[in-house]
């Protein structure tokens, strides 16, 4: 590992895949908890001899050899790490100090440390004890597509075949020669992959994808009791809601109902693309809701949400996380969680090719509010789109920028260089002076520790102060020139 990469890692701090550990003459127990959680999640790197804030304390040089030998012995002991693993620590020299780097790759199995399973959540190792959570870990490890589970006792009368004429028309609208137009119902279901065979159990029949796409409401409730999408409007009554829609029907009708809710409560701002008008609100809502419907993990008890607030809207749904990172058009790798359902949506034009949704969200989201959305890949997948009723892209064409917009674009606050995230936090704390670090973390889509680190940096720059006690205090943001 080169020094430049190490210095970048130290500057970024702890993340879902980076952990710093102090290390004197021996390795502490929590190091093995991190090994276990990294194995069970996305893998990562442990740096022994580094403080939580990234300061290098170093490992005693005369203890390095014994530390490495003891570590290898511990992770190879089935009474400590189960199943056992082989890891090769690397010794780094940094400004006269020794750092031991342990690279932990993601594992295809679920591991435990002293019979306890650990998972990685943000930059924290968390004990996993609930049966449902452990089951989800095995599903994630095995890359099982639960949509393919066969239900041999689901028959034609359990499905909404009355939806098929409409589905055929949607497919033909996209492609006039679509083969579904001439297919019988049975052949269409087979063609769409909605009839499967369990070779282990020797059963054949409709699968979970068929039930979720076309099942009658009572059948869906029987197969997936927790399946629901809760749509909420929270603009005036933020503690409860101003409007609510509970959707528990098939995915095809769910899409229409949720799009109707979005159309009812979102401003349809004017925007021309070429010679044609594009409904930005419909384009954004479509990508958010399609993702929430077709990429969710249906075996989870987590209830999906679509929430519209005054300054943002977001969707949340159960997910099989791949990276745990913030998703951008640059780092996104298409990976359908439910390929059968995703393919069905694309055939009837409710979704485009994989990857286009991320690009569309970033493009239209910025045009709609002037700010970029956030897509957070975790066990709960979250899409956050900022809202600003006063912003209009069309109205700003040809107009000079205000001092405030210039400040945000150039990354300066009161003449002091700031990142976009720092400026977002300052703007957020102006409106929410009593916010906690947890509130800040939720606003920027990062861990609590990262929020604490950025707040500390802003205080050092003199842009942010804290008044009062830890429990009853509040933030004071330095006024900007345009406040």
3D structure, described in words:
By secondary structure, this protein is α+β, with helices and mostly antiparallel strands. It folds into four domains: 3-141, Schlafen, AAA domain (Methyltransferase, Cobalt-precorrin-4 Transmethylase, Domain 2, 2-Layer Sandwich), CATH 3.30.950.30; 146-223, no CATH class; 229-395, 2-Layer Sandwich (Heat Shock Protein 90); 409-477, Arc Repressor Mutant, subunit A, CATH 1.10.10.10. 36% of the residues lie in helices and 21% in strands. The protein contains 17 helices and 24 strands. It has a seven-stranded mixed beta sheet with strand order 13-12-16-17-20-19-18, with helices on one face. Strands 1-2-5-4 form a four-stranded mixed beta sheet. The protein has a four-stranded antiparallel beta sheet with strand order 3-6-7-8. A hairpin with a 3-residue loop joins strand 19 and strand 20. The radius of gyration is 26 Å and the shape is globular. It starts with a helix and ends in a 6-residue tail after the last strand.
């Amino acid at each position: 590992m080169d020094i430049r990469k190490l210095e970048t890692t130290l500057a970024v701090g702890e993340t879902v895949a980076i952990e710093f550990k102090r290390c004197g003459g021996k390795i502490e127990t929590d190091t093995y908890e991190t090994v276990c959680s990294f194995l069970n999640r996305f893998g990562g790197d442990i740096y022994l001899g580094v403080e939580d804030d990234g300061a290098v304390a170093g490992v005693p040089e005369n203890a390095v050899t014994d530390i490495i030998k003891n570590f290898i012995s511990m992770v190879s002991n089935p009474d400590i790490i189960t199943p056992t693993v082989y890891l090769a620590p690397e010794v780094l020299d940094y400004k006269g100090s020794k750092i031991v780097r342990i690279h932990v790759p993601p594992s295809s199995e679920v591991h435990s440390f002293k019979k306890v399973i650990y998972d990685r959540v943000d930059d924290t190792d968390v004990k996993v004890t609930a049966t449902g959570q452990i089951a989800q870990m095995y599903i994630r490890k095995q890359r099982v597509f639960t949509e393919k589970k066969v239900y041999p006792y689901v028959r034609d009368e359990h499905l909404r075949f009355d939806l098929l004429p409409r589905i055929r028309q949607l497919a033909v609208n996209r492609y006039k020669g679509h083969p579904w137009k001439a297919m019988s119902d049975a052949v269409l279901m087979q063609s769409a992959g909605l009839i499967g065979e369990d070779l282990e159990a020797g059963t054949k029949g409709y699968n979970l994808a068929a039930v979720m796409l076309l099942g009658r409401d009572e059948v869906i409730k029987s197969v997936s009791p927790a399946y629901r999408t809760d749509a909420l409007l929270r603009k005036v009554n933020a503690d409860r809601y101003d409007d609510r829609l509970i959707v528990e029907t098939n995915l095809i009708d769910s899409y229409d109902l949720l799009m109707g809710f979005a159309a009812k409560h979102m401003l349809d701002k004017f925007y021309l693309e070429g010679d044609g008008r594009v409904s930005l609100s419909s384009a954004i809502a479509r990508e958010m809701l399609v993702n929430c419907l077709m990429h969710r993990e249906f075996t989870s008890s987590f209830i999906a949400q679509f929430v519209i607030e005054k300054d943002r809207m977001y969707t949340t749904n159960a997910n099989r996380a791949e990276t745990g990172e913030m998703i951008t058009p640059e780092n996104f790798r298409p990976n359908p969680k439910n390929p059968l359902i995703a393919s069905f949506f694309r055939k009837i034009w409710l979704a485009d090719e994989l990857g286009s949704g991320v690009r569309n969200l970033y493009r239209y989201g910025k045009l709609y509010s002037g700010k970029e959305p956030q897509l957070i890949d975790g066990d709960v997948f979250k899409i956050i789109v900022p809202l600003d009723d006063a912003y209009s892209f069309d109205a700003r064409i040809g107009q000079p920028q205000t001092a405030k917009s210039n400040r945000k674009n150039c990354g300066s606050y009161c003449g002091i260089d700031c990142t976009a995230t720092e400026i977002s936090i300052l703007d957020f704390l102006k409106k929410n002076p009593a916010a906690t670090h947890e509130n800040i973390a939720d606003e920027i889509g990062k861990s609590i520790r990262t929020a604490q680190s950025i707040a500390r940096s802003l205080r050092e720059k003199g842009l942010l102060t804290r008044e009062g006690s830890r429990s009853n205090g509040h933030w004071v943001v330095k006024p900007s020139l345009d406040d």
